[in-house]
Write a structure and sequence with these properties.
Aspartate Aminotransferase, domain 1, Aspartate Aminotransferase, domain 2, 2 domains, 7-stranded mixed beta sheet, 18 strands
Length: 449
């Protein structure tokens, strides 16, 4: 360890305030460079990136086409505001997003991160009901699911449901109609996996009936609730939710921040059940993991409610300095070209199968309660008692211990409490997948003997 790297570690520990990190316990890990799925720290040690740099890296680090797109855009213009003007690259990217997202999402509002994309959707939904041709000003509530995670700004925290993240700010948040998380592993008493989908949909319909005429929008993470611990929804639940929102005249917001851009095996999770929401939020993989960017896509019906003269004040008064940044848009366009030219989704099939094989084996461990997979994203839940599903006390940080052991084996993964997350870049090779899963398995064997 050089004197310079030790100095950087000290500054990192004392000056940089890291997200979701107890700084009194933080041990610096400084990544200096990366290539493909490999991260290299300041001392030259290598680690496989098993969580896609927090779920955003898509095609691996330093992909030559993404690098080239970024350099080419820098030769033209690095930043153009979206307030009152635009640039060709961002316009082309908006057109591509409209082309590839579910039908009807024909208008794109750019912002800077997933939380912001959610804030925009919440505001759009609220304002839509006030400004459409036949206003419904009583529709001011939102329906969200238990253990949902939609970001860290106040609106996104309000619709979120992970108590450990949010309870400190409870007095600052607006009330939300909370539907139960459609969890197939920890089912309510008296319910079975076979009836889970129908039962959860009945719960939701009951809530919509109780709040009839008051709900502006429902927000959902399609197929997989990420920060909840990779909670996988029953098959048919998403399409059932879409049917209920239509029946009860409620807008549907699809939060595809984590599950979009190939993570589930298709470009967007909504495609699995042929769902077209009223609003869709995108971020993380939107720029291939290169630059901060997000987008909220809306239908023409919603768009039209905001049209009028300036004096009518129907404008969406919301904006971000870097919203629609041309550098991020250029990399986003290049990323979509890579999806097509390198047949990324087609090549995911054997990788998804290989991950499933590893999970099936790991799932036999006596302290692995459940393994959950959707495409190339997965969670391995550790439990004290497999039969009763009794969880380890979260203070014991069993998931964190497993990840720390994996790091020693040269694999970088992160936990969600007692759930070890596997979400490598889509470009991961079969051999790299093997290394990631074997390192996690070895860690579990030591932490949960």
């Amino acid at each position: 360890m050089s004197a310079e790297s030790e100095q950087l570690r000290r500054w990192d520990r004392e000056l940089v305030w890291h997200a979701f990190t107890q700084m009194s316990e933080y041990e610096p890990l400084l990544i200096e460079r990366a290539e493909g799925c490999t991260l290299v720290d300041v001392d030259g040690r290598e680690y496989l990136d098993g969580v896609s740099s927090l779920w955003c890296n898509v095609h691996g680090h330093r992909h030559p086409r993404l690098d080239a797109a970024l350099v080419e855009q820098m030769r033209q213009v690095a930043h153009v505001t979206s307030l009152g003007m635009s640039n060709p690259t961002t316009v082309r990217f908006a057109k591509r997003l409209v082309d590839i997202t579910p039908a009807g999402l024909d208008h794109v509002f750019f912002s800077s991160d997933g939380s912001s994309a959610i804030e925009v959707a919440l505001k759009m939904a609220y304002q839509y009901w006030h400004q459409r041709d036949d206003p419904r000003p009583d529709k001011t509530k939102y329906v969200a699911f238990g253990n949902a995670y939609h970001g860290d700004t106040m609106g996104s925290v309000s619709v979120g449901g992970v108590m450990r993240f949010h309870e400190m700010f409870a007095s600052l948040l607006f009330d939300v109609v909370r539907a139960p998380s459609p969890d197939q592993y920890r089912l309510p008493p008296g319910r079975s996996e076979e009836s889970a989908c129908a039962d959860y949909l009945q719960d939701l319909e009951t809530l919509l009936q109780q709040h009839s005429g008051q709900v502006a929008a429902l927000i959902i993470e399609p197929l997989m609730q990420g920060a909840a611990g990779m909670v996988k929804h029953p098959a048919g639940f998403l399409s059932g939710v879409r049917e209920l929102t239509r029946r009860h005249d409620v807008l549907m917001i699809a939060d595809e921040v984590a599950v979009g851009f190939g993570r589930t095996g298709r470009m967007f999770a909504c495609e699995h059940e042929r769902v077209a929401p009223d609003l869709m939020c995108l971020a993380k993989g939107i720029s291939g993991g290169y630059l901060p960017m997000s987008a909220t896509l809306a239908t023409t019906e919603i768009w039209n409610a905001f049209l009028g003269t300036y004096a009518e004040s129907k404008t969406l008064f919301h904006g971000h300095t870097y919203g629609g940044n041309p550098l991020a848009a250029a990399v986003g366009l290049a990323s979509l070209e890579v999806f097509d030219d390198e047949r990324v989704l087609e090549k995911l099939v054997p990788k998804i199968e290989r991950l499933g094989q590893h999970l099936a084996r790991i799932g036999q461990h006596p302290h692995v309660g459940d393994v959950r997979q959707c495409g190339l994203m997965a969670g391995i839940e550790l439990v004290q008692d497999r039969e009763t599903k009794e969880a380890y006390p979260w203070e014991e940080q069993r998931g964190k211990q497993v990840c720390e052991l994996a790091i020693r084996d040269g694999v970088w993964v992160r936990p969600l409490a007692n759930v070890v997350v596997v979400m490598p870049p889509l470009s991961v090779t079969l051999e790299e997948l093997d290394r990631i899963c074997l390192a996690i398995e070895a860690g579990i064997a030591q932490v949960c003997p």
